[in-house]
Write a structure and sequence with these properties.
single chain, 387 residues, alpha+beta, Nuclear Transport Factor 2, Chain: A, five-stranded mixed beta sheet, four-stranded antiparallel beta sheet, 17% strand, elongated
Length: 387
């Protein structure tokens, strides 16, 4: 793979980390990182600044009140990807994860006709009995638009470019990384689609954030610290981190999810979460090299009788946090086993069957010639043979 050790991006993968320690009763909020630059434009008029400030106050009040529809009425949802992402963002805090504190502040508002940009600082916190995540704060370039209904929030501000198979959007100030990313993307696309045995029909949008909290603030407020994110119909989201792990495997991991969603009709497939993550981890390992430590951990778990029950890791939202650390390595190990035992073509047929048609209990005998329970026994025997 060309540029395999490209200048890396990124911070901690969503379901691969353990639970973050709960904050104290009165957690302190660290200052936000330095804001990325926004291309120069005339400063907004006093009238525009006042109207946008009033908009921010309405947005804040709606979030604190859990009023999803009132909030979305204040947002420009013309961009379909942003509309889907931000609607899901609102679904999160208006249903399962209401916030205990939320505030918005805006600086350096600049106006260019019917659009405006500024540095928006977002701070939020949860009741720790609902979400065991610390209070957070971040600053990112935000955009606003105006029309007959007045000013509306239009999401993050981006510098955008097109690459074969991708639309690449980076936070202003990160433009220098675009050439290297653009150079490596076609090779990653070719490797991942060949390994997965499927090419998507659509173009994948990539969004590169300046820091992890900016990604979380614009994805789901209740998430732990993450370095990558992709859900059906959404952009592949990454975090710029020059001192972090290599870029290529992380993009390969998230692109694998995108292929699964696309084959399922831009929605989640019927395969269990542990298998979805296991396959994405396996594909990423074909770029970064075999994940020997991960496989060794699963071999040790089998020897100690500590493998997690598959059924308890089948659905992301229902998987206990204490089992998250098992999802990636255990799923990866199963994919390695199936690939070695049956070959990549039969493995991919097995995965394809779970796209829209059947679940794993039906796909396994149909494509691998045995029940899933039998496959699990063979998997455990395979692990034991490698001790």
């Amino acid at each position: 793979m060309k540029n395999r050790w490209l200048a890396p991006l990124l911070v901690i993968l969503v379901a691969g980390c353990g639970p973050v320690p709960m904050p104290s009763a009165a957690p302190s909020i660290a200052p936000p990182p330095a804001a990325t630059s926004i291309p120069s434009a005339p400063a907004a008029s006093t009238g525009t600044a006042a109207e946008v400030q009033a908009l921010l106050e309405q947005m804040t009040a709606a979030v604190l009140a859990g009023e999803r529809d009132d909030y979305l009425a204040l947002v420009d949802l013309a961009d379909p990807v942003f509309a889907l992402e931000h609607t899901r963002w609102a679904d999160d805090w208006s249903s399962r994860h209401p916030v205990a504190m939320y505030s918005l502040e805006l600086a350096d508002l600049q106006q260019d006709g019917e659009s405006a940009t500024g540095h928006m600082t977002v701070a939020w916190a949860f009741d720790p009995s609902i979400v065991a995540e610390p209070s957070r704060i971040t600053t990112f370039p935000a955009s606003f638009s105006t029309g007959a209904g007045g000013w509306r929030y239009a999401g993050e501000a981006w510098t955008s470019s097109e690459v074969p198979y991708f639309v690449l959007r980076v936070a202003p100030g990160l433009e220098a990384v675009v050439p290297d990313i653009a150079d490596v993307l076609p090779g990653i696309y070719g490797d991942v689609t060949a390994e997965y045995g499927y090419e998507p029909s659509g173009t994948l949008e990539i969004k590169l954030y300046a820091d992890a909290n900016a990604l979380v603030a614009n994805t789901l407020l209740s998430l732990p610290t993450i370095r990558g994110w992709n859900e059906p119909g959404e952009a592949l989201k990454l975090v710029h981190d020059p001192g972090g792990p290599p870029l290529a495997p992380t993009i390969a991991h998230e692109l694998t999810h995108f292929l699964g969603f696309d084959r399922a009709g831009t929605r989640r497939s019927r395969m269990p979460w542990w298998l979805d993550e296991g396959m994405a981890t396996y594909v990423a390992s074909t770029i970064e090299g075999p994940a020997g430590d991960r496989l060794a951990q699963v071999i040790a778990w089998e020897a100690e009788g500590e493998l997690a029950p598959w059924e308890e890791m089948a659905v992301f939202e229902e998987t206990p946090v204490e089992l998250w650390e098992h999802v990636y390595p255990q799923g990866y190990a199963m994919v390695v086993f199936v690939t070695e035992r049956f070959g990549s073509d039969r493995r991919n047929d097995w995965l394809a069957a779970m796209a829209t048609e059947v679940d794993i209990d039906e796909a396994t005998p149909a494509k691998l010639g045995r029940s899933f329970d039998r496959l699990d026994v063979e998997f455990r025997d395979w692990l034991a043979d490698q001790r």
